[in-house]
Amino acid sequence: MTDSGAQETKPARRGVDRASVAIAASLAALALVLVIDAMRIQANVTYGMGPEAIPLVIAAGLGVLAIGNLVNALRGDYPEREDMDFRPVGLVLGGLAAMIAILDFGGGFIPAMTVLFAATATAFGRRAILTDLVIGLVIGTIIYVVFSRLLTLSLPMGPIERLL
Amino acid sequence: MDTFAALAHGMAVALQPMNLMFALIGVFLGTAVGVLPGIGPALTVALLLPVTYKLDPGGSLIMFAGIYYGGMYGGSTTAILINTPGESASMATALEGYKMARAGRGGPALATAAIGSFVAGTLATIGLAFVAPYLVDIAVKFGPEDYFALMVVAFVTVSATFGDSPVRGLTSLFIGLTLGLVGIDKLTGQPRLAFGVPELLDGVEVTTLAVGLFAVGEALYVVSRRHHTEEKIEAVRGSLWMTREDWKRSWKPWLRGFCFGFPIGALPAGGAEIPTFLSYSTERRLTKHPEDFGKGAIEGVAGPEAANNASAAGTLVPLLTLGLPTSATAAMMLAGFQQYGLNPGPLLFAERPDLVWGLIASLFIANMMLLVLNLPLVGLWVRLLAIPQAWLYAGILVFATMGTIAAKPSVVELTMLTGFGVLGFLMRRYDFPIAPVVVGLILGPIAESQLRRALSISLGDPMTLVQSPISATLLVIAFIALVAPFFLKNMGRFKATED
ipTM of the assembly? Predict the structure, then answer.
């Protein structure tokens, strides 16, 4: 991203930026959520501000920023972007989801970390899934032993952890 | 209290064998993590927070001092050897440092960075020790409305003034402010933005947000553009030591770097990128060897690195005296305080002088350890740089998740971590700065409670905000800082790529 300073001096008119329009829409939606949530609050404050005041102020700010982002999007005023490879991103997110699922079903810390490690390594282009699973297992075990035994942090236990 | 007496007392705390060991572990871990490419000091502190969970506050803060300086030194090592500055403050270093490394002068570049950081860091810590008590005296006179105005200044300067685009910076800030609303309102007990999820009632954990945005977000971003990047590590060839000529060319930039770094870092405007780039351009102008610039001039490493470290110590001035974090790293330090229910500010100086002065004294010690530890260990750090990217990021994700599980073992928290990771990825992809989100989450609730306190004292009269001269002045400053970049399009065009 170091080079985008140079890009900015170029006239950046490449038509409407759809992503920026989506960002503006999300900000507006977030503002709406804030307003709805603030309307629900019932609190009696004799003097000064109640708990609903600041959310409304922030919602107003988000609304203004949604317009600001929309204007930038329509002017085509945004930095150039590289093309993206979304498959590995999905793979990393899948690894995170699998990790959460394993923990939720009581599979324990070490298997969860093993899967996360192997999924991420694969996403970064490694093709030795078995090796990466073993490395993940070793790293997970080391972290578990160091942190739960030496530093007495409580990490989730599953069948493997109970054996240690 | 007399500064010397207080500092001597702090030294006595910091020099206890256990605390010395904590500082050593902190410096070692901080450097080891900070040296990994893509991990800046803020993330280093966030990732290493769980290590300190079970320590007492004193020991943990001392370890933090070590992690803080170690992480920063690690960042400059990556900037010099693989041209990957972990944060914007190391960008100026990378300009000449990487060229020096390519010319086979990586050793002297690392040495001048380390010694310059030591010199400037020590001077800046002395500055911190002497300035802080005065600021504390002023800060105790601050009413809630003055605090609120001060937060507004910090909001504006962190997000709008020095960034690339005020609209993008403010968007990031408001996302952070929104996240700060989540949870139970402290004054009335009303839940806000919790949507009936019990885990959300406690609010958004700062570490979860920071680790999600910085670590998970960075991993997703790097993997999405894997085919674009190719990093090449420059081997450290030749002598590690600086020649007499190197020393002669370095010492003035070190001192000038301190003069830029400390005062600017101490302002509630924040950011180390301004002083580092100021230092870089000054050295470039003053050098007797202009032909070297662009090919690896040692002044271009010595100055910015000194400025970087001095401003890091400077950032601790508003953090410790006012509880005001002005950088993502300082925000993580504040999170470290908060895990013990400690709130930095004038009260902490009065109530826990042992903690505050112990921390300041540890900064001296950490700085010294950095010097004796890191020059001999350069070989080890270089080997850490050679870890394949796939394993590096897999390991980062494992460690990031571990921290979240250790802090709050729940599916909701891990889902939030993943969600913040996606947010961080999108913000990187669409060029929104990350630091304002973290600052907004931390400062938003504080600013709100100060404002509401001010208004309930004034019986709801908003004029109280402009009747206090301090508050009125600060609000005017904030307004100017907010409006100026829209008119001065060329101001502050230093790229702010933190993370």
Answer: 0.87
